[in-house]
Amino acid sequence: MMLDLKALLGQGNAPLVGVDISTSCVRLVELAQNGKEGLRLERYAAELLPRGAVVDGNIENMDQVVDAVRRVWKKSGSRARLAALGMPPASVITKKIILPAGMSEDQLEVQVESEASQYIPFALDEVSLDFDVIGPAASSPEDIEVMLAASRREKVEDRVAIAEASGLKASVMDIESYAARAALVRVADLAKGGAGQVLALFQIGAQVTHISILLDGATIYEREQAFGGNNLTQDIVRAYGMAFDEAEARKKSGELPDNYASELLQPFLESAALEVTRAIQFFFTSTPYTRVDQLFLAGGCALIPGLAELVAGRSKIATSVAAPFAGMALGPAVRENQLRAEAAAYLVACGLALRRFG
């Protein structure tokens, strides 16, 4: 089955929301054109997910996720019905392949399916498949380079069903790491510091940290590490005898005993900084690259005060918290102070919302 995103994308610049379904939260972003080249953040909102509703990127409780998507859409005040959703990187197989140039769309589709069967460990009828022509192949001008993306069909259909049950229509399906990259590259381009620079992005989620390293907007290295904000929540559970949900709520509100900052939070930040520096060292030893020019932190944990400074000190790399809405105008519904405190958690949702503009 070909997942025909090109047909789905034939909507022009129709209003669209980016909906990021993570392990712990559903986040929504709606962007609009602002003048000829500018963008405006119209709306954004978040809704927590019950523990266990999404595990390792798999939808375990459809009703709970639908409820959260419905509530976040209502809370945002958006009227857009089209949605761009993300797939976890671990659930999508991507592969660059070389094919002869000059084929029609239909011929290309047949050829891609034929090539896909070599790389995908499932029967093709169990798979949703898409491809994108990158351009002429560097090694041979008569050929083209094509990016192939495939996922188990039920994983795609779960997200499509969630959108529909929430009153939305899934018009774009992207890979979460690609969406995050699109949002980060836009910010790097604004800063005029992207050309020739090696940028490292660490998205620290609830359970997993996803690492993407980019050169001139292209991913040169990707990896996941089993480390996230739940480590700190579990520490709170053990130290104070709380239920997980209460520990998570108090972690966010800061309503914890006086010794929390020194005995739990600081060691967690030290561990996070150590994870980042180890990952950078692993990148250096396993690739030809020997430098990272800028390091960006995203995800819920990136919002913890002091983490960026600690990572910068340990790694000796200029480090900042990702600001996906930098350079955008703000719609009347957006509160600037609140946005500044939360923006880094919306990197994926922002990247998904950018799909409205191609």
UniProtKB/TrEMBL annotation:
Source domain of life: Bacteria
Protein name per Swiss-Prot or TrEMBL: Type IV pilus assembly protein PilM
Pfam families assigned to the protein according to its UniProt record, in alphabetical order: PilM_2
Species annotation: Rugamonas rubra
UniProt domain SHS2: residue ranges: 16-185
GO biological process, one term: cell division
